[in-house]
Design brief:
globular; FAD binding; methylenetetrahydrofolate reductase [NAD(P)H] activity; two-stranded antiparallel sheet; alpha+beta; 12% strand; 3-stranded antiparallel β-sheet; 25% helix
Length: 242
């Protein structure tokens, strides 16, 4: 059992002491461990903050639209913090000067269709797997629901598959379908009623937050359901390598 916080690395693990006179115990080696699945860690992961958040947003695995501008893959962070790695001239050439929500929707749709190389939340082109859900993404953005990350569902595809594969040979990869998006508050009110309805509840997991910091989730640990239970883990990409 680890004795060092919720950081997944640099843990002191003492499974069994071979020399009680000279070896430390877990309690004496560090601070008592805290649960990893807390609401604070869930928020940190969703925002890419802290150790858990940085690992969650690292681009190790190829997802259809997971090109977060905060990713370390884009280079070193400068003294002004994370920012777009392009000049103002390049940004204006790409996006112009949108003046309405319809203008912004058009930019997102162009990005999904491959007509625009980047948006502020994704500084790279889309992966081939996005073609599978392209029409659904276009429909969402036409509504003004601006999608910044997404992936289609995959069930046991060989790890060497040209589109979905990753990792060593002879493995199998899995993905849950997910989408990360911005949407108007009025639309969220309608959508949340659908997500918590009997037809969908228990099947779809969601996390939602607004500019005021209000947080809602289908997880029993917080948000819409205020019960004192640990947060659950919801993996969206994983692999099995026999």
């Amino acid at each position: 059992q680890s004795s060092i916080g919720s950081d997944p690395h640099n843990r002191v693990i003492v499974s069994s002491a071979s020399n009680h006179a000279y070896e430390t115990n877990p309690e004496g080696a560090g601070l008592p461990a805290e649960p990893i699945n807390t609401r604070a860690n869930t928020l940190a992961i969703s925002e890419g903050e802290g150790v858990l958040g940085r690992e969650a947003t690292w681009d190790d695995f190829p997802n259809g639209r997971w090109g977060d501008a905060r990713s370390p893959a884009y280079g070193e962070i400068d003294g002004y913090g994370v920012s777009l790695h392009m000049s103002v001239t390049q940004a204006v050439r790409l996006w112009g000067h949108p003046k309405s929500s319809e203008d912004i929707s058009t930019l997102f749709i162009k990005h999904i269709r491959g007509e625009l190389s980047a948006i502020p939340w994704s500084e790279e082109g889309l992966s081939p797997e996005t073609n599978i859900i392209q029409e659904q993404l276009i429909e969402l953005n036409t509504r003004g629901w601006w999608t910044v990350a997404s992936q289609p569902a995959v069930n046991g595809v060989p790890s060497r598959d040209a589109t979905f594969g990753w990792g060593p040979s002879h493995g199998f990869v899995f993905q849950k379908a997910f989408v990360e998006l911005f949407l108007p508050a009025a639309d969220w009110k309608v959508l949340s009623e659908r997500l918590t309805g009997p037809e969908v509840e228990g099947t779809v997991c969601f996390y939602a937050c607004n500019g005021n910091g209000d947080f809602a989730t289908s997880d029993d640990s917080g948000g819409l359901v205020r019960t004192a239970v640990p947060a659950s883990t919801n993996a969206v990409t994983w692999g099995v390598f026999p």
